[in-house]
Design a protein that fits this description.
12 strands, 5 helices
Length: about 170
């Protein structure tokens, strides 16, 4: 049985990682660390960089050969009113709200370009990150995988691409 050390909690968990996330949107992460907090306001869920607004979300890919899903903890860029609406609903259930338009703000390994990919974001309840939905009309690999799920071979490719396990 394999195990891994979680980069979020620092604990060792049995099995292989079933998620990967980013601490910040790529554009903010690229700011030198000593300047970052002077140029952007952020925490683990929200980020504002000038007139740009970001929310950390969850993009799920169902497993086809095992239970559960692989979760990408991505940042998305939203319009200012949607950002503030999310803040209003932060401690409430926003799952009945209409989905908002957004774009992915992280380059995801093992995929064609995801930076700026248009998506829909559905707010959730107060204990869950908003859900990212990639429109099937995008023709992007993420849309196909979100619709059909990923098999164990693809799961392994993702683990290798994220550095969670070694290559073949």
């Amino acid at each position: 049985m394999k195990s891994f050390v979680c980069s979020t909690c620092g604990e060792t968990h049995d099995g292989l990682p079933t998620d990967h996330g980013w601490k910040l949107p790529d554009v903010v992460w690229a700011i030198p660390e000593h300047e970052r907090s002077n140029q952007a306001k952020f925490d683990s869920d929200l980020c504002q960089f000038g007139d740009r607004f970001f929310i950390r979300c969850l993009l799920k890919l169902a497993f086809t050969q095992q239970p559960e899903y692989y979760g990408w903890g991505v940042w998305v860029e939203v319009q200012e009113p949607d950002f503030y609406r999310y803040i209003e609903l932060y401690d409430k259930d926003g799952s009945d709200e209409p989905a908002v338009s957004a774009t992915i703000a992280n380059a995801m390994p093992s995929y064609p370009s995801t930076l700026g990919l248009p998506v829909a974001v559905q707010f959730q309840n107060s204990t869950s990150r908003p859900a990212v939905l990639v429109p099937s009309t995008s023709g992007h690999l993420l849309a196909a995988e979100q619709s059909a799920g990923i098999d164990n071979r693809r799961y392994h490719e993702i683990l290798v691409a994220t550095g969670s396990v070694g290559g073949p």
